[in-house]
Design a protein that fits this description.
Length: about 425
């Protein structure tokens, strides 16, 4: 890099308001987070620059560079939502809540954006309610279809939403979990939502919350698929820009801290007190201030240095580390910190589509989950920290046998 290039701050155009997005964190050259190559196939890996910035107009935090969607979401997409029992219960409860509160009229209709393996819609199907999932990744869409969930294997956007409106009529609810933040083409999606929703319809979506990411230094929430890191402030600006109103927010404990946002048509519903409360809290915390975000970036570098030092020290002592959960998030951690098979022998994961492959970029071998119990290491690096409650419960034997967990959220520590 030339000195000139180093000196020039990176700026991009905001996907929401076309304002200036100022970079505050560079996580370097990164592979696709969900592309697990076979040994011998690593030469073809795709890399891009993972950096994140904040818009000085609407405060939306977003990636500086976009990865084409077809590279991420396709017939080999390996993330199956139903792999976690906690998430299965979370989405069953979500479906029951939506049925009770929003799907109360005659012949209601719900559309899900990113239905994956049907983890939420299978409860809706069981209730006999009209539904449709949009899921472009054929691998996971097929699992949902095999459960009897109705799925269109395509991206939700304006044209596909308009097509559904003409065949199926208006939707009462459009719901989306861990998907809307994956979509840089917001204008198309919200025009699609406008076309598909009935006059009283709502768009409900839940995604990782910027407030939790900053508070916990969970920088691994930043990767190719997570194009936006939402806050109530930035979502309100987005809603207004595209003809909606933010009418409710609810913090959720799943996936390390999320917020469920509800958008309605302007004037349709009185915003709940929770909206003003979260907006106030974000203002008081100066969540989107450049200074706050630069402080976050400094904490990220500290976590990297502490984690690498610890892993090197363990290696110098002749002890073994194995990682737990080949999460998409862990691609950011491994590649940013330079953690390869020299420091972590292998990663254990329950997903068949990831097993006997290598992790993206750093090429740590992925083994089936039972490899963990078959031969406990001295230390286990908890890549799937967002599922820690579920994992700690089933892996109690590890600590009882003298093993120790390594955590890096909110800071590096051993338990
Ligand atoms: N909703 C599930 C959950 O919360 O576990 C799945 C989340 S997964 C991280 C994101 C999903 O969104 C993927 O299955 C991907 O194929 C899908 N996706 C990405 N862009 C989409 C779009 N424009 N329309 C519908 N689905 C999309
Ligand atoms: P996620 O954090 O994006 O949900 O990904 C979780 C990954 O961890 C996924 O590859 C499945 C894996 N996993 C396990 O290996 N064991 C478990 O007990 C759980 C909950 C997840
Ligand atoms: Zn903006």
């Amino acid at each position: 890099m030339t000195d000139l290039a180093k000196a020039a701050p990176s700026v991009s155009v905001c996907r929401i308001c076309e304002g200036a997005v100022h970079e505050f964190l560079d996580l370097g050259r990164q592979p696709l987070s969900d592309a697990f190559p076979q040994a011998g196939e690593t030469a073809g890996e795709f890399f891009y620059r993972l950096a994140v910035g904040v818009c000085d107009g609407c405060t939306m935090v977003q990636l500086m560079e976009e990865v084409p969607r077809e590279r991420m979401f396709h017939e080999d997409y390996p993330y199956y939502s139903s792999g976690s029992s906690v998430m299965r219960e979370h989405f069953a409860q979500t479906a029951r809540d939506l049925i009770r509160t929003e799907l109360t009229g005659g012949d209601p209709f719900i559309v899900e954006i990113g239905c994956n393996d049907g983890i939420m819609l299978n409860t809706v199907r069981d209730a006999g309610i009209r539904h449709l999932g949009f899921e472009p990744s054929a691998s996971v869409a097929k699992v949902a279809q095999d459960k009897g969930v109705r799925v269109r294997t395509e991206f939700f956007e304006e044209s596909t939403a308009v097509a559904v409106r003409s065949t199926d009529g208006p939707a009462d609810v459009i719901y989306s979990a861990n998907t809307f933040c994956h979509i840089p083409y917001v204008a198309s999606v919200l025009r699609g939502a406008d076309a598909l929703l009935g006059p009283d319809g709502v768009f409900v979506f839940e995604d990782p919350y910027l407030g939790d990411i900053v508070a916990k230094t969970s920088f691994d929430q930043i990767y190719d698929e997570h194009f936006f890191l939402f806050s109530a402030t930035s979502v309100q600006a987005m809603a207004r820009r595209f003809g909606f109103e933010l009418v409710d927010v609810r913090r959720l404990p799943v996936h390390g801290g999320e917020v469920r946002y509800t958008l309605g048509r302007p004037g349709m519903r009185e915003p709940t007190p929770a909206v003003a409360a979260l907006l106030d809290a974000e203002r008081a915390a100066r969540l989107a201030d450049p200074e706050t975000l630069r402080g976050f970036a400094a904490s990220v570098a500290r976590v990297r240095d502490d984690l690498v030092s610890l892993l090197k020290e363990i290696k110098a002592n002749g002890q073994k580390v194995v990682a737990y959960g080949a999460t998409a998030k862990s691609a950011t951690v491994a590649n940013y910190c330079g953690i390869g098979p020299d420091l972590v022998a292998y990663v254990c994961d329950t997903t068949p589509a990831k097993q006997h492959r290598l992790t993206p970029g750093m090429h740590i071998p992925v083994k089936p989950a039972n490899a963990f119990q078959e031969s406990y290491p001295d230390y286990a690096l908890l890549f799937a920290w967002n599922h820690s409650q579920e994992i700690m419960t089933k892996e109690q034997g590890f600590r009882e046998s003298g093993g120790r967990w390594i955590h890096y959220v909110p800071d590096v520590h051993v338990t």
